[in-house]
Amino acid sequence: MLSIGLTGGIGSGKSVVAKIFANLGIPILDADALAKKIMQENDQVKSQIISAFGNESYNERGLNRTFIANVVFNDPFQLQVLNSIVHPATIEAGKIWASQQKAPYVIKEAALFFEAGSAEGMDKIIGVYAPDALRIQRVMQRDGLSREEVISRMQHQISQSLKMKLCDYVIQNDEQSLLLPQILKIHEELSQ
Description:
Rossmann fold; globular
């Protein structure tokens, strides 16, 4: 079974593309959702986060996402610290999940494939591309963030042009190109 990475910058439309692959019967692992679950439920990870960022990291509802976001998105070193805690546990959980699937290939969806070093275990990487202005607009609408907040988050990811050069396939999600024919072509190739 092939392990396929699906990546793209914030607001590129990775989740939309993943849903289409899922409708084709391909198992999808949302690594970002898995990482959030691990930060909520894995006692070792929680302990490391508290040790690194303090007791404010968690509140009565669990992970204090607002506090953590304010810390890590304003300090690249702190973001690296958080990633060094969360990414290894997420990568390991992803490997266990993939070993339990029955399909010609599985897809692991993650924004930070190359940044996290998790691209190494993948057979192929699919990139989802969208113009920056469209990505900013999508994230502002989806997350209720200001333009400046979205741009700040974009700056913590490697450039979209470099990310796409590192991918084996690139899907254009620019609201001009049809997604389904692009996805079906990749699906057919990976299913052989």
